[in-house]
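Treating backbone geometry as a discrete language has practical consequences that deserve illustration. The sequence in question and its structure tokens are set out directly beneath this paragraph.
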Amino acid sequence: MMIIIYKSNTGYTEQYAKLLSEQLGLPCYKLGRVPDCHKGRDAIFMGWLFAGSIVGYKAAAKKYRLRCVCGVGMGPPTEELAPGMREKMGIPPMVPVFYLQGGFDINKLKGPMKLIMKVKCKEIAARLNVRAELSEAEQATLRMTQSGASCVCRENLAEVVAWYK
């Protein structure tokens, strides 16, 4: 049986992992808290994005046979995201890579990460505010930069569910 493993920073990736677990009927574990009996098992890995890297991927890839990888970030989905994550992380070509728009709330961050993201949020908001029209996903990203928001929902997992089935 396959398992779902996740690494979450502020809870949005964990929410996706639990939703996927419910939809697929697979057990779900936080990276670092997976029972030893699952070592080496086939797994779907879900990690949060930081500077284009999927946090926790390399650690998970050492212990499990990753059959699918999902990166969760705050930005809107684009065609370049999954290939960019694959290349940056060195994910093998036969492993599907998915991007999921998650959520963001600056108040859930601490220390240096909070300071870094305050600057990044201003940059992202400035980029989006000059556009005449924004997609729904871009509007969500703008809300995330200003007051926090979440895009976590079952519908965003449709491609991952279709791949599994």
